[in-house]
Amino acid sequence: MHEETTARLLIRCPDKPGIVAAVSGFLYNHGANINTLDEYTTDPDGGEFFMRLEFQTPHLDLSRSVLERSFNETVAERYEMDWRISYAAKKQRTALFVSKMDHALVELLWRWSRGKLPADIVMVISNHDRLRETVNGFGVPFHHVPVTPETKQEAEAEMTRLMGDDIDLMVLARYMQILTRPMVDKYRNRIINIHHSFLPAFVGANPYRRAHDRGVKLIGATAHYVTDNLDEGPIIEQDVLRVSHAHTVSELIEMGQNIERHVLARAVKWHLEDRTIVHGNKTIVFQK
Amino acid sequence: MHEETTARLLIRCPDKPGIVAAVSGFLYNHGANINTLDEYTTDPDGGEFFMRLEFQTPHLDLSRSVLERSFNETVAERYEMDWRISYAAKKQRTALFVSKMDHALVELLWRWSRGKLPADIVMVISNHDRLRETVNGFGVPFHHVPVTPETKQEAEAEMTRLMGDDIDLMVLARYMQILTRPMVDKYRNRIINIHHSFLPAFVGANPYRRAHDRGVKLIGATAHYVTDNLDEGPIIEQDVLRVSHAHTVSELIEMGQNIERHVLARAVKWHLEDRTIVHGNKTIVFQK
Amino acid sequence: MHEETTARLLIRCPDKPGIVAAVSGFLYNHGANINTLDEYTTDPDGGEFFMRLEFQTPHLDLSRSVLERSFNETVAERYEMDWRISYAAKKQRTALFVSKMDHALVELLWRWSRGKLPADIVMVISNHDRLRETVNGFGVPFHHVPVTPETKQEAEAEMTRLMGDDIDLMVLARYMQILTRPMVDKYRNRIINIHHSFLPAFVGANPYRRAHDRGVKLIGATAHYVTDNLDEGPIIEQDVLRVSHAHTVSELIEMGQNIERHVLARAVKWHLEDRTIVHGNKTIVFQK
Amino acid sequence: MHEETTARLLIRCPDKPGIVAAVSGFLYNHGANINTLDEYTTDPDGGEFFMRLEFQTPHLDLSRSVLERSFNETVAERYEMDWRISYAAKKQRTALFVSKMDHALVELLWRWSRGKLPADIVMVISNHDRLRETVNGFGVPFHHVPVTPETKQEAEAEMTRLMGDDIDLMVLARYMQILTRPMVDKYRNRIINIHHSFLPAFVGANPYRRAHDRGVKLIGATAHYVTDNLDEGPIIEQDVLRVSHAHTVSELIEMGQNIERHVLARAVKWHLEDRTIVHGNKTIVFQK
Fold first, then answer.
1. D80 and D106 share a domain?
2. Which of A76, D149, D166, D280 has the most neighbouring CB atoms within 10 Å?
């Protein structure tokens, strides 16, 4: 597969007969070759239909813009599709947010520096000035924007100014601030957060202490899109590690951080590969 | 290891220097040979200490009752121990409770019939008459005790009568009734329940439907001792299975049941082998 | 989804542009509605292409045989497809084979009796007479066919006679006999076996004893199609459990059996749902 | 727990009655307070006995050397013990070895720099000059010692000179060279290696390619002590990740590296905390 010629088409529409035939027929007729096709329907009989196609465009008989316009007119409108095409060669411009703890941030930067996260990481923004050297070591600009309850709006305005108009993805890699509603709305389904998770849940302060006191046998992490409901957005990925009564609170925290690193990295990768479609409060994830 | 001569000593006391030396010295001086020793302290400096010893008694120079009395006088009182000795050859008399779903019950009965659950399963009690044949097929008596909101007290009285005075363990293998507080009190730390678990938790009705709508990536099960707080007692064991957006609600339920089977069986086995000690709302589990 | 109207189309052919469009267009034009579509290519540029479609046929404008003939003529021949259509309502006639250990057999029978294995289990064949009562308890005929090295051919002839001409699937649920090559050839890609697996592998006698002596931290199981190379056929499913140095050989065996139960049940279910396609010594598994 | 006063006693001897009483009595009588005690016997009746004690020494009425001599005379000789005491405050001097791939090395250095690996990492030695900057960024000296088949002996002599006489642990973090027998002998049970693992095993070249062609469903990693039998030494830790037929060889390699990072880090941590005892070709691991 050649990245330069790889495109992805994401579709969401009411399910009805003929969608796969219409889409694949369109691509075939215009010289595109499908590599992978994933689809999901909530109900074949009147439900919602989701599809992801990855295709090669070397012999494309049209320019991209003409292809997209043609697709819209001949297929998308007929099936009332919510759709978009992305091109693997055009990496998503990504801003990472962090507070003081570096574990999730370093995991992302390290994978990215090895070519394993197909993003264009353009900056790291932090409400503390602690990780500047680490970030710069990866060749990424670091911006310190202090945040207090009183200055949150100004701080977010400054962050928005720093990010400019063409940021595709924000990743909260242990950014311990709640974003304002306008910020969340502006980047809807384009902000990924990571947080610890337990069975049962421990909402509120000191969750690891309480998980320890309760003697849980599993600790986990959840990566999700940020919505107005804190920590309640559409889940992208989750995982757990086994623990015992003998682990101290600080050991649980360390183990929790190790899961957070991997869960967040997987979620971000799937987003960057256009494998996720948000549907209500749920994420369809077309993973391998 | 010979089951007939295997004994287990469970201890709980304030932590202070010398406990291990006192206990192991006592056993050695009376001809007992320690096979395994597990211990845990919440804090070596003034915390709570827990210990489980499994030892062989072939050359014991005392009868069991004299040994126990001697231990109490020379060791246990000095360290203010809460303790008990159990003998592997004396299997715990166990009653299983079930409603309509047989998955957890059959798993327990099947493991037991193969000699893998060291219990003396003396009866199955159900509020439905549906699983009589299945239970009898394992050679276990089945009692049908209908329960309605109005008759719950009488029903529990009947169950108590059926169980008699020497039931050591009650296992709720998908018994969909809440026990009354007197019943819970009577068998404190001797009733094990199994229920589904999710990250995050979905309290209330239709949890699998809601987990499906939320797009969780893991579904799990928790086995715990029953307390007055429904589904909130000390956790013994937990596990999860990976799921995807494509699994239907009924598939999630089936997968959840498969985890429940194994989580409950492990928890019951550990209880029967005296590997668990309840401490507040937490269970110390000395598993291998 | 209505089982009576559900059909599945499995395809394998050289990859070239237009396959998805051709197949989905054909189905659409004949009134079939696609529920799910999975595909995989070893290489979009001249590799091997695999596809599974599940579709509904309520409004089919053709009989099944006409549909199949038409598909062959208008699509399959053009793309040199190896293909077949199956119908969910026509369950696969399945024979289970077992020796003395019942764990894998009982798991399959129990899931099947609850409606969770979409098979038509028509008989159990064993080289021992030990599990007759268990099998009959599930309402399934049991046939005892003794096997010795000298009589293996006659024994297999008798088994073949018992199975008749319309057995779709043979499952070796801990059947401790090696099948002869003619038997394997006759049911190629239609015999599923389960065996223990370790990292590293312990080939030969007493694998659990050797895994114990080596101090492995994981024990596992592999379900695979049977080929002439013993235990080396195309893998369908694998899983592991964590163990420690403290587990005895007999505990490892018990844990291994618990994994075998689940790995085999999953593999058989996927086969029955037509989710598997063998390619060389590899199995493409289109699981959810 | 205060690291400065924490000591650990590791014991191995023929199992016989009275060991626990003798050891714990000795420690108690000399003012040491046991925090944790783990033990294991291959057979209570004449087998091999292993024990790890972690104890606090704040009120010790003896100097360390007197304590050790006294223990030897009054306890160890009587029970024919192979034993040693280590002190948590004296971190093990550790040398890391690497070739070109940085994943395992960076994971160790990152955990160590955050205080999560209780070692004194004194140098990194590599047969390539590729990771110097990365290593120096963590404040650790980097030594490039080229190795060719002809110069292996001289190269190892140079490495031995660099390490000096007081290296406690060598970690091969993807060091793609086989050590000579004298080197292995000199650091017996003090060299930890990491390598990929599969079920079944693929010995020889291109294991990931062959695992891909075989369609394995799990890929894993094993950390072990190095012996003369390449990749066959006593196992310390293992883990696996689930994969599918759709993962490419390079994706399998990446996933395998992610497991290697964690398996090696856990194994090294357990070694550094004196939780491992080698017994024949097996490692007793007293993990929490």
1. no
2. A76
- Contacts of residue A148, defined as CB under 8 A and 6 or more positions apart, other chains included, come to A155
Low-confidence ranges of chain C (pLDDT < 70): 1, 61
Final residue belonging to a domain, choices B87, B118, B142: B87
Its domain, for residue C35, covers 3-87
Nearest CA in chain C to D218: C238
Q: Which residues pair with D223 in a beta bridge?
A: D194, D237
Q: Is the same domain home to D41 and D126?
A: no
Co-location of A173 and A222 in the same domain: yes
Encode pLDDT of D62-110 as tens digits.
Answer: 788 899 999 999 999 999 999 999 999 999 999 999 999 999 999 999 9
Interface check B207 vs A, CB under 8 A: no
What sign results for the dihedral spanned by CA atoms B256, B226, B11, B15? Answer: positive
Neighbours, chain B (3 or more CB pairs < 8 A) = A, C, D
* The pLDDT of residue B203: 76
One domain, residues A46 and A150: no
DSSP B73: I
Q: CATH no. for residue B7?
A: 3.30.70.260
End position of a domain, from candidates B29, B55, B87 = B87
Say whether D162 sits in a helix, a strand or coil.
Answer: helix
Give bridge partners of residue B13 from the DSSP assignment: B49
Question: Using only C-alpha atoms, what is the Rg of chain C?
Answer: 21
* Amino acid code (one letter) for B44: P
Under a CB-based contact definition with an 8 Å cutoff, are residues D245 and D221 in contact?
A: no
Q: Is the ipTM of this complex over 0.85?
A: yes
pLDDT, residue C232, reads 84
Can you give the pTM of this predicted structure?
A: 0.96
Chain D residues within 8 A of C281 when measuring between CB atoms: 213-215
Residues A139, A280 within the same domain: yes
What is the structure's pLDDT at A156?
A: 96
B231 is annotated as an active-site residue: yes
Chains that touch D (3 or more CB pairs under 8 A): A, B, C
Same domain, B130 and B163: yes
- What pLDDT, on a 0 to 100 scale, did the predictor assign at position A89? 93
Measured between alpha carbons, how far is A109 from A126 in angstroms, rounded to an integer? 15
How far is residue C81's CA from residue C12's CA, in Å, rounded to a whole number? Answer: 6
Say how far residue B177 (Cα) sits from the centre of its chain.
18
CB-nearest to D110 from A106, A116, A247 is A106
B16 and B97 within one domain: no
Question: What region, left, alpha or beta, does residue A115 occupy, with left being phi > 0 and alpha being psi -120 to 50 degrees?
Answer: left
Inter-residue contact D229 to D203 (CB < 8 Å): no
The partner residue sitting opposite C235, judged by closest CB among D216, D232, D238, is D216
Q: Are B42 and B3 spatial neighbours (Cβ–Cβ below 8 Å)?
A: no
- Same domain (yes/no): A130, A20: no
Query: Are D215 and C234 within 8 A, CB to CB?
Result: yes
- Under the banding of pLDDT at 50, 70 and 90, the label for residue B104 is very high
pLDDT in tens, D146-171: 999 999 999 999 999 999 999 999 99
Residue A118: cis peptide before it, omega within 30 degrees of 0: no
Q: Is A59 exposed, middle or buried (0-12, 13-18, 19+ CB in 10 A)?
A: exposed
The kind and range of the H/E element at C119 are: strand C119-126
CA of D285 vs chain B CAs: smallest distance (Å): 11
Q: Find the distance separating the first CA and the last CA of chain C, reported in whole Å.
A: 16
CATH number, residue A211: 3.40.50.170
Q: Give how many domains chain D has, as a whole number.
A: 2
- Round to whole Å and give the CA distance between C90 and D24: 69
Q: CA-nearest residue of chain D to A243?
A: D288
Encode burial over D248-275: b for 16+ CB neighbours within 10 A, e otherwise: eeebbbbbbbbbbbbbbbbbbbbbbbbb
